[in-house]
Amino acid sequence: MRYRQLGRTGLEVSEVGFGGAGVGHVWGETSDSECERAIRRAVDLGINFFDTSPMYGGGKSEENLGAGLAGLRDKVVLATKVRLHSEDELANLKSAIRSSVEQSLARLRTERIDVLQIHHQVGPERGQYLAVASPPRYALLLTEADCLAFAEAAQGLIDDGTVGFLGITAWDGDGKVVRALLESGAFATAQVLYNLVNHSAEAPPPPGFDDVDQGQALVAARDNNIGVIGIRSHAAGALVETLDREVAADSDVARDHARAGRLSFLLSETMPTLSAVALRFCLDNPAISTVTPGIKKTAEVEEAVRVADLPPLSIEDRNKISALYQNQFSG
After folding, report:
1. Residue 268's CB: how many other CB atoms inside 10 A?
2. Which of 69, 128, 205, 288 has the most CB within a 10 Å radius?
3. Distance CA 144, CA 179 (A)
4. Closest by alpha carbon to 35, among 258, 231, 299?
5. DSSP string, 2-44
């Protein structure tokens, strides 16, 4: 396993991280015991960055990580998040943040959180966005001022050692607001969406782009020495041969899964699955500190670590991927 600097935090994190949604039973079927085995196997194989949220399975992800990391806490970098559920919580940030953190600490069986992240999309005006499609669940869309107020309110947790660093969720946010937050100095990390079918965190999207523009967040992060946590490396589970759950025919996952079918030329003896190719593609980007695929089984851990040991994709293959992306996988 290779390790990279997490921006200016001074933390060294494994280039393959552990995305915690899977062990919250969010991505397909699994069991708590299998989740715990996967977590411990990840540590055995050198994965030291674990990312979770109270929102993953209603706390189930944090609970399983707490169980799986029992006795291993000092070997890992642990990141979780805060989701604010009402305008009232926004008006009482200190108490809302502390309450969320205390509950996370209990579930994670730890006394500290290395990276505490705002689990909200951001925009120029406060509002709501669809956080979960089915059944529909909405979350608060926060402004730049809201996020800076969050950072100020969380400072006490940093001062007393409960929290190490603060981060934002940059995916699907307004590009100007994301850049302003990354330039503010208040945040040390950012979660950034980047994968085979959406490169807009790195460069302006092509004509006809029908996904969410990630606003060149990777560029803004690099310019401000922000640690980048790469998310949605597999496009919410779409970049695989067979989906692990039923999805609506008109969903983004269905669209991206169809596009994945155009990438079969990338399969080889060493990378026989689209899942492997999807991870390798993200690992090849030096702007990303750690890539956090959603993991729920031991076999997925072992496959991710195996892919990390493979050589980068060839320039020829990357050029072919870029050409497909520029044409939005049509023609």
Report:
1. 11
2. 288
3. 10
4. 299
5. -EEE-TTS--EEESB-EETTGGGT-SS---HHHHHHHHHHHHH
Tokens of 6: 């997490």
Phi, psi (degrees; rounded to nearest 5) at 166: -110, 150
Q: Using CA atoms, how far apart are residues 70 and 109, in angstroms rounded to an integer?
A: 7
Burial class (CB in 10 A: 0-12, 13-18, 19+), 320: middle
| Closest C-alpha to 119, from 213, 189, 180 | 189
Q: In 224-289, where do the E strands start and end?
A: 227-231
Which CATH number applies to 3-326?
3.20.20.100
Q: What are phi and psi of 254, to 5 degrees?
A: -65, -40
> In the chain, what are the domain boundaries?
3-326
Residue corresponding to tokens 């669809």: 130
Query: Is there a contact between 77 and 45 (Cβ–Cβ < 8 Å)?
Result: no
Q: How many CA atoms lie within 13 A of 97 on its CB side?
A: 25
Closest CA to 105 of 144, 176, 150, 52: 52
Contact 39, 22 (CB under 8 A): no
